[in-house]
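Example S7 (structure tokens).
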């Protein structure tokens, strides 16, 4: 069964979020093609993932010393209620990620990087041994496809004056590649100049912003219809 994990990390849930609009378009198109079964949604703003704490780190170190045990063996090493709570918060997120064939991530650019809400999710799911096949040592994410949908108030794409300030795309690409996701399974879609319609001093860029958003919508729709065949 084809499955989709849909993550939103925009802090703004008022309906003005461009990244939320585009991830919703992806999810709607995907469900029209595949049906609602296998679809899971997580709003990282409405239900934030707690940042890491001492219990998480202590349990993680114990798992590393034991030889990077798979998630189903971790409960054997849990010591005390704090670690039990840390694992209870972590395990469902890992399971949800590993169950997905495709993951679509709404990632607005905040201060040149990814939102803290998304970073907290990344930090927690990256538990020692979580993405490694315990028998063969291969990545459990090797067949997963990731579509990252970014919304940026300015212009940071290749060839723009501020391209060097994009720490969002390189970070997410490096992260997924580090955990065994092939380059061809990672796609980035960006809508740029998203605040041009709001700020008078950016009025000259409104036509460019509209074209960028239209292109992003078309690309998102194509990726969803292709089963994120990136």
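Recovered sequence:
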């Amino acid at each position: 069964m084809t499955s989709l994990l849909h993550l939103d990390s925009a802090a703004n849930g008022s309906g003005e979020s461009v990244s939320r609009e585009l991830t919703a378009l992806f999810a709607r198109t995907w469900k029209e093609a595949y049906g609602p079964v296998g679809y899971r949604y997580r709003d990282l703003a409405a239900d934030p993932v707690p940042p890491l704490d001492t219990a998480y780190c202590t349990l993680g170190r114990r798992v590393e010393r034991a030889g990077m045990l798979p998630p189903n063996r971790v409960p054997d090493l849990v010591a005390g209620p704090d670690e039990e709570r840390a694992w209870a918060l972590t395990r469902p997120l890992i399971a949800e990620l590993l169950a997905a064939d495709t993951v679509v991530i709404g990632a607005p650019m905040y201060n040149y990087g990814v939102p803290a809400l998304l970073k907290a999710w990344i930090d927690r799911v990256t538990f020692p041994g979580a993405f490694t096949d315990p028998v063969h040592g291969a990545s459990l994410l090797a067949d997963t496809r990731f579509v990252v949908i970014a919304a940026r108030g300015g212009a940071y794409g290749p060839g723009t004056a501020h391209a060097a300030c994009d720490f969002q795309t390189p970070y997410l690409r490096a992260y997924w590649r580090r955990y065994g996701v092939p380059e061809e399974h990672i796609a980035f879609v960006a809508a740029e100049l998203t605040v041009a319609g709001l700020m008078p001093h950016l009025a000259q860029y409104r036509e460019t912003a509209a074209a960028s958003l239209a292109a992003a919508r078309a690309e998102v729709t194509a990726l969803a219809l292709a089963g994120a065949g990136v």
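Notes on this example. Helices lie at 18-34, 54-65, 80-98, 116-125, 168-178, 206-225.
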